[in-house]
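Here is the promised in-class demo. Please do not try to memorize the tokens; focus on the logic of going from shape to residues.
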């Protein structure tokens, strides 16, 4: 006898809160911002926290251990440190080396973290990615507070809901979606950045401005001198606006966990990720994104989506910010174009490239014209920013 199949279908929603805080002096004893985002997890009414710190930031800030100690003393009635802070290698090394994830998991386990404990990750985007990935796996997820210490992380990656590490030579091949308990941007933490890391976040700011907000684009263009002179008072509003635009896209556009094929915030990234891979991560993410934006601007011009003047203004702005938009890797167009296929796989099987449409608007391109893309890559290499 054939029994008819039955389907039991129950839909449900899970409420999330994504909290971005902007404060200066987050580790000052008189600053309650960090303590305020931590809920008690022990019977004594304290939050148990495990801290991981980017080695580059740790080495550049000799007073950090004392500052953390003073902060913990001030909030000893509310916060309990679960073990010594773990210092992680900065940059892509933290995402390329599987040992880093094992080190994090071992630290969490030795500290006996429970699911209501907190991992506080302090560092650049790569360290936040690795720490967030490990935290999302441990006990199927412990709470995460991100304290980004680079312009790139503050303007973009730290406010995302993604965590990832590199594997098999591919960028972000392994990863999870997990909404952080809080993100705290502190402009003071940016002061020891090397120049290449200082400018990196402004590539992401140009990216989101070009596809979402002309006003931010104009603000960046009028603030080039202040940005290159590292004027915190002028730069903090730009970083904050970029972060808010990224956050708004995640929370207001109905696809925070990227179930669809469209990924607007990855404009310029199909080639950027590939450039990082084929240069062995010699190119930093910010520098690669700047080149990726230039390629896509040339391509968008060829498709008639933006005026040549918009493309020229964009690449001139990127150069004014200190980005070198040329690299020998651009000579290998075949390897670079392989990034299109990797990107298609990563977004879910259907090609969906976000392109600017005018200044401050965007559209989706679902097929690519290989010859036009090759011409666009050659145009960037030849410093001829617009294609015919």
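The designed amino acids, position by position:
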């Amino acid at each position: 006898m054939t029994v008819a199949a039955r389907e039991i279908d129950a839909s449900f929603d899970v409420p999330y809160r994504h909290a971005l805080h902007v404060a200066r002096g987050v580790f000052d004893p008189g600053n309650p911002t960090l303590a305020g985002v931590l809920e008690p997890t022990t019977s004594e009414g304290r939050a148990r926290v495990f801290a991981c710190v980017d080695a580059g930031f740790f080495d550049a800030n000799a007073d950090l251990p004392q500052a953390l100690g003073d902060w913990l003393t001030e909030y000893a009635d509310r916060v309990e440190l679960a073990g010594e802070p773990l210092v992680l290698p900065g940059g892509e090394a933290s995402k390329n080396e599987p040992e880093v994830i094992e080190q994090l998991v071992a630290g969490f386990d030795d500290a006996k973290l429970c699911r209501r404990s907190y991992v506080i990750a302090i560092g650049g985007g790569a360290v936040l990615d690795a720490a967030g990935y490990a935290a999302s796996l441990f006990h199927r997820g412990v709470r995460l507070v991100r304290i980004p210490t680079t312009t790139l992380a503050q303007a973009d990656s730290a406010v995302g809901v993604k965590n990832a590490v590199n594997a098999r030579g591919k960028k972000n091949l392994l990863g999870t979606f997990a909404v952080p308990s809080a993100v705290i941007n502190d402009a003071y933490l940016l002061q020891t950045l090397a120049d290449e890391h200082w400018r990196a976040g402004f590539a992401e700011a140009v990216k989101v401005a070009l596809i979402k907000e002309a006003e931010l684009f104009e603000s960046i263009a009028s603030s080039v001198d202040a940005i290159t002179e590292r004027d915190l008072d002028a730069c903090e509003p730009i970083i904050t606006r970029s972060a808010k635009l990224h956050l708004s896209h995640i929370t207001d556009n109905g696809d925070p966990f990227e179930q669809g094929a469209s990924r607007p915030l990855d404009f310029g990234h199909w080639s950027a990720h590939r450039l990082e891979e084929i240069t062995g991560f010699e190119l930093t993410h910010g520098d690669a994104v700047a080149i990726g934006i230039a390629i896509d601007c040339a391509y968008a011009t060829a498709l008639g989506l933006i005026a040549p003047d918009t493309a020229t203004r964009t690449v001139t702005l990127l150069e004014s910010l200190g980005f070198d938009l040329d690299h020998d890797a651009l000579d290998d167009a075949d390897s670079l174009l392989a990034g299109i296929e990797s990107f298609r796989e990563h977004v879910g099987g259907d090609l969906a490239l976000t392109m600017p449409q005018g200044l401050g608007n965007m559209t989706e391109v679902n097929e690519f014209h290989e010859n036009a893309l090759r011409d666009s890559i050659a145009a960037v290499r030849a410093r001829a920013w617009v294609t015919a």
